[in-house]
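Workshop exercise sheet. Pairs work together: one partner reads the sequence aloud, the other fills in the structure field after running the prediction. Swap roles for the next sheet.
Pair: D.N. / O.F.
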Amino acid sequence: MTYDVNLVRQQFPSLDRPAVFLDNPAGTQIAKPSLDRINRYLLECNANHEGRFETSRRSDEVLYEAHAAMADFLNASRPEEIIFGNNMTTLTLHMSRTLARNLQPGDNILVTRLDHDANISPWMLVAEDKGCNLLWVDIDVEQGKLDLDDFARALDRKPKIAAFGYASNLLGTVNPVKMLTKMAHDAGALVYIDAVQYAPHGPIDVQDIGCDFLVCSSYKFFGPHAGALYGKYDRLSELKAYKVRPASNELPYKFETGTQNHEGIAGVLGALEYLQWLGMQFGAGQVQAWREAGFSGRRLELKVGMSAMQAYEKELSRKLIGIVQSISGTRIHGVTDLDHLDERVPTVSFTVDGKDPERIADELGRLGFYVWNGHNYALAIVERMGLLDAGGMVRIGPVHYNTLDELERFGEALEKVVK
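Structure field:
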């Protein structure tokens, strides 16, 4: 079936209102299969872990299936490589503390100015606590891309950990993560990837990338507020977890100490089931290529679903970039070359000459167009671009349930606000 955005929108009950949701980089609307999973969990199997009774056994089955589905989504080698938590930030603070046990004073940690602060501040805190050095990789301000030469220079200093993002939450830039991972490994570094902003937009294959750790959040890909961390099994096995003593020493449970958000994890499973549905409905054109790459079953359906989504979102990117650029005084920060849309997700951030981003976002909100303004936790980017005191940027973030018509109407509203 050809991609049908109206059929997609029927899977999102919250879209049935007179508002245009372009605030998606901060959190998408939730898909009905995810809502259904949360509701069923709470009504049918709400119980704590490893009880000798039916609801607890059924709860454990749901939680295991969620680990297995997330492993399929990321193409991890096994469910035990998936750790659930509150969100990417909490998981990264937890894992950074664990990794810090193996660091010595004077060791180097690499971070980039293209990242969300959740993949910067935890490593800053580690450096402060352990007496390590923080190596900052710069960005190309004009193109909104990572400075690859500066990345290589930082690796010459042999960092123990290299932390970088898959896609920028502010500029939309997609990093060449497979190449960066190989460069970092060749320099002897562990690789920690923030994939929060890429996970809602394209297929992820952690085995192909080769990273040691990768983290994302399901509320960015049509599920509830929850986070998931992938780690190579051998890496996770050898690390000491900060946990309570009675908690299991086995994976993944040693890193999931305490009672987890069971209904949230059930909701993650539902979000992934929605992405499977997307693949089965609209992925006919992508199936063969993924089959030839060795995928089958749920892994195939998830990859196909994300590919179908990605193809449609390129149309959204093309449309949105043209609309913003057509309005006098605007400047998009990031990739604008329409021949290089593979190098960005549809998140577009811009400034307007002489206009306050907060005022623009406020006026758009009054007109029913929900957008973000400010630094959006990408503090290092706006500092590097000299835009912090000016209020940062206006951020527009369509996803696959947004329509070209919505973007047209957004453009008309933006032109009115700017004038």
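Discussion prompt: The first helix runs from residue 5 to 9. What would you look at next?
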